[in-house]
Amino acid sequence: APGEVIYRDAIPELGAHLRFRIQNSGFHQDVLLEEEIPPELVADLGFNPLRTRVLVLSEFFDAPTPIERGDGRVDFGGMHIGCGQAFRVEGSEEAVASAEVRPSWEVLEGRRFLVERVEYTALEPLMDALEGPGQGRIETLRSRIGRTASVVPPARLPSMGRRLERAAIDPGRLRPWSPRLASAGPGLRRGVVWDYALELSTGQSNYVFCGDKTYYIKASIPLVGVSVFEAGCVIKFAPTNSARLQVRGPISWQGAPYRPVVLTARDDGSVGEAVYGAGTLSNYYASVALEIDRSTNTTAAVLGNFRIAHAQTAIALNGRSGHVFSHGQWVNCQSGLVVTGSEYALRNALFDNVLTNFNATASTGRVEHLTIDTASWCHYTNSASELWLTNCLVVAVTNLGP
Questions:
Q1: Cα–Cα distance between 243 and 266 in angstroms, integer?
Q2: Is the distance from CB of 312 to CB of 241 less than 8 angstroms?
Q3: Which of 198, 203, 244, 245 has the greatest number of C-beta atoms within 10 Å?
């Protein structure tokens, strides 16, 4: 596939493949396992499965020294590597369980490595449906590692399996999804992948949308506490089930120049990870991409550097004053900004092919440096609402409104 290369049997002792992908969101290295690493084999190699980690080491040459953040992120400045997920896929490539993978930067014998680690107790339940390795692979692995003494009596292995199951990391409310493998050559029939995009399916508290991840929203998701939107995060919405983000608490919006926060359609392949089940881009998706409810919250919404595309309603704002939206793009939406009982400012923005730019009820908008191109309505309202435009360009708009 474009921008994708798979090295099959790159780790022959484990029947593992390596996949490299270049996308707008960054560079990805995935380890693909098609065979189980059973606890009996781990124990036979001299390790206690309950105290074993599985590591992927990637050597870096001529690389700067990164800063390791407390949140598990390896930060190179303009590029960073965050926590990931190992997850299981079946024939449809839908991820059905996950385990956290944490990175670290290690200097080993003068060589620099990115080390991605996952607890074996979390990884083993993801592999339990896979075929075991053949005897030839086992013997090769034993000879490569050079250990044969078992530290765990074989009689304990059945009970250990139950303990492994109980110790597994619960994926909780985040369900990762896998992009499809390259079409050239056989795909991954069933296996474990170390990479991810994340799906939110239930409400969240104090949630962080990380700048190195893609999120898939399939339903109405309430967000309470402080919601953090890091620069570069990509949020994709389903076209059904009233998919929306309902932000009820304070917002920490960290969009930056050249690294905007992007809210778009599930089928938009121009940015972020591909979402399982994605098809041809058409019509509108998010019922409300960002619903900001200030009826019970006194904090103003201040959002800068963002792009919202293919939404039925891009932003819905309810209540309070002092809201500021700046350096934003609304593209191919049905409604741009739906406002109820609010006062807000909009500065340096673009509405491109947004059918109704502003839909207001008892609200006042003060807008500077806005470009509108192609719309049915600039300002639609059934009540006393005002829209002030300063130094704006309005092109191909059928109805201006008040």
A1: 11
A2: no
A3: 245
Round to whole Å and give the CA distance between 116 and 222: 32
Contact between residue 75 and residue 69 where contact means Cβ atoms under 8 Å apart? yes
Give the Cα separation of 277 and 177 in Å (integer): 10
Q: Could you tell me how many residues make up the chain?
A: 402
pTM of the model: 0.59
Least confident segment among 73-82, 158-167, 293-302, 310-319: 158-167
Distance CA 42, CA 130 (A): 16
Contacts of 138 (CB under 8 A, 6+ apart): 41
- Containing 303, the helix (H) or strand (E) segment is strand 302-309
Distance set, CA 87 to CA 95, 103, 144, 177 (Å) = 6, 16, 27, 8
Sequence-distant (≥ 6) Cβ neighbours of residue 282 within 8 angstroms: 267
Whole-number average pLDDT of the chain: 81
Q: For residue range 319-368, list pLDDT tens digits in order.
A: 999 999 999 999 999 999 999 999 999 999 999 999 999 999 999 999 99
Find, among 342, 352, 339, the residue nearest to 381 by Cα.
Answer: 339
Q: What does the DSSP assignment read for 100-112? A: EEEEEEEEETTEE
- DSSP code at position 13: G
Between CA 118 and CA 56 the distance in angstroms is 9
Q: Which 3 state secondary structure label does DSSP give 120? A: helix
Instruction: Give, to the nearest 10 degrees, the angle between helix 157-167 and helix 120-127.
Output: 100
Residue 153 pLDDT greater than 60, yes or no: no
Of residues 80 and 57, more confidence is placed in: 57
Residue located via tokens 């474009």: 2
pLDDT greater at residue 138 or residue 262: 262
**What is the rounded (10 degree) CA torsion for 22, 331, 250, 260?**
30
Q: What is d(CA 313, CA 67) in angstroms, rounded to the nearest whole number?
A: 39
- Phi, psi torsion values for 134, nearest 5 degrees: -70, 165
- For 356-392, the pLDDT digits (tens) are 999 999 999 999 999 999 999 999 998 889 999 999 9
Reference 330, options 242, 273, 262, 235; nearest CA is 262
